[in-house]
Amino acid sequence: MDSGQYRSGSPAGESRAPTPVKIVIAGGFGVGKTTFVGAVSEIIPLTTEAAMTTASLGVDDTSHIQGKTTTTVAMDFGRITLDSDLILYLFGTPGQDRFWFMWDDLCRGAIGAVVLVDTRRLDACFAAVDYFEQRELPFVVAINCFDGVLAHAVEDVREALVIGPDTPIVACDARVRESAKTTLIELVQHALARASAVLRSPANTHGGVGAGTSNP
To answer: How far is CA 31 from CA 36, 72, 108, 114, 207, in A?
Structure first.
């Protein structure tokens, strides 16, 4: 049997439709989620940016993001084809607490998430990390290197966020397409590894598909 034909599941010479995969881009207010989606998307991204008004004074902390005049009020959406078999659909979450009610809908069906982090405001991403840990959704932490500089060592960030060694932490420049793409590849690999580990677990080995049935 031709191995290439077996992997594709289609007769030789026929292409298989790519697998669509949902990814969430999350994090606190102003960490670069809209920039990340816009930089890596192969289509013109859908954004729901609204002008910040005086109503946000004292509510949204802009002390480290001077010049920010808009904010995401629903979601960002983009798409990137990783290879002929895999298309990622990217959903960027709003960062402010008052929009958290939307997160469950945005995250439904996702295989994993990228949590963008601004090390000047680590506390802004604690809630996102807690959210994905509680729901056991695979995620990677991407330290957004503002001005292209990694201000803190990766392991220092891991300790500050109190996350285990199994969660990848990567440096990322959300403005640069290749950097954002590398982060997404890291997430996909992490999600696949997590899924494989679950399938190999004793509970699934003894109680998975076919368990409790008898052959005729």
So the answer is: 9, 12, 22, 12, 43
Half-sphere exposure of 200 (CA within 13 A, CB side): 6
User: Which of 100 and 89 is assigned the larger pLDDT?
Assistant: 89
Query: What letter would DSSP give residue 46?
Result: B
Q: How far apart are CA 125 and CA 141, in angstroms?
A: 10
Residue 49: is its pLDDT beyond 50?
yes
Model pTM greater than 0.90? no
Give the range among 27-36, 74-83, 200-209 with minimum mean pLDDT.
Answer: 200-209
What per-residue confidence (pLDDT) applies to 95?
Answer: 64
Q: How far is CA 80 from the centre of its chain?
A: 13
Q: Mapped to the 3 state alphabet, what secondary structure does 150-168 carry?
A: CCCCHHHHHHHHCCCCCCC
- DSSP letters of 72-136? ESS-EEEEEEEETTEEEEEEEPP-SGGGGGGHHHHHTT-SEEEEEE-GGGGGGGHHHHHHHHHTT
